[in-house]
Amino acid sequence: MTRTTKPKKEKKQKSIEESLWESANKLRGTVEPSEYKHVVLGLIFLKFASDKFEERRNELIAEGKEKYLEMVDFYTMKNVFYLPEESRWSYLIKNAKQSDISIKIDTALFTVEKKNPALKGALPDNYYSRLNLDTTKLGALLDEIHKIDTLKDKSHDIIGRIYEYFLRKFAIAEGKGKGEFYTPKNIVNLIAELIEPYKGKIYDPCCGSGGMFVQSIKFIEAHHGNTKEVAIYGQESIPTTYKLAKMNLAIRGISSNLGETAADTFGKDQHKDLKADFIMANPPFNQKDWRGANELTTDPRWAGYDVPPVSNANYGWILHMASKLSSNGVAGFLLANGALGDPDTVAIRKQFIKNHLVEAIIVLPRDMFYSTDISVTLWILNKNKQARSIEHNGAMVKYRNRQDEILFMDLRRKGEEYEKKYIQLTDADIQEVVSTYHNWQREGFEKSYKNIPEFCYSANIEEIEKNNWSLIPSKYIEFVDRDSKINYDKEMKRIQKQFTNILAEEKDSQEKLMEAFKHLGYEIEL
Fold this sequence. Notes:
By secondary structure, the protein is α/β, with parallel strands linked by helices.
């Protein structure tokens, strides 16, 4: 008899992202998980910048321009950072096992920033030396990053993939209440599809790692628009996250104005005169004590409204963003659901609605965020809800007058599960929401839009006033009472019959089992 051997199960190939995460995890003990993002992403930046530099350098050699190899302008003209010898990846990897590798990395980052004004304030300062990292583990991390060919497949944006994976993992590792620097791409994509930031000034007052901006650029590219027709403005209060945002944008060649330094948007607005065409934001939810009791009480951003309460910054963020919109500006931002009907802010909400600023209120499913499991709301504000025509990517679109209407949508029954605990909207879900919203906005909507129970409803201002200016969608969207239509007697008889059948089948199985043992010479009792 010949023995057949089972074929060996093919080992699953680790992704670049997984390998990098494992390498970073080896730093545990000397570095907190919350620091991984800074350790790893600084090195990834250097690797990517070096690969782009070497590619441009080889182009110059191929063109017979060897005498220009060390001239900065011949790199920046192609949106490539110039790297002196000590900042190049080849130099770092050659010295990866040296005891002073941390100092060499810090020197490399300092020199790159000094030689490239666009990177001012973007890179970690003397960071690796201060961490006192284990040299062997840091060398292993360099070796892992060295395996990445960042230029292999431009269409798949390898660096973007790594950034997104790591930011997501960092958000999970840092736990609830933290990780605010990451908004799931799925949600950012929905906002971009709704407000359509084709051209103009795009602003995020709490920009985190810059994900909203990256997705805006991707939206424009996906719709064959011109990315040179947008200008990026942002602000971030956490210094390390501010640097991360600058790196994230620089690594993709996205020019931006994130202010001179990291600063609190309420206390030190670095874009006071800005009027943005589009705002995309994910402010901190339910931020307490965001100003002192006697601070910002006469701030011009609240002109015409009550002063937002100290106990919660939600309406501070709303009024800040409304004040930044141009005459035709549109904003899409996220807030905790409590802002929809908070009794402490009803006067602000009432005035806001009467000023025709609220375009749509969209409640998202629970468990979409890594840092909180609550259901949150996507608000759309529009400074001009009057009838007009707008050019979108070369085509004229006619919009109807919606000044006295607000569209409510409830997506809590939408989405699919991933990673066994999180929810994301499917492409079909996003398409349904976007088409419903745009059909409602446009002329001829009577033929293309309709109120759908448990999904959407177009409410007029009289209905909203009757509900004490509440923006809670369930007060307007029709709820289908399925329970009242159940014939309980009929259902109980069906369940009773089903249960009787199950018991009968179980008894039959037991009798057959006893009979089988009896034939084998055993008596058993069940």
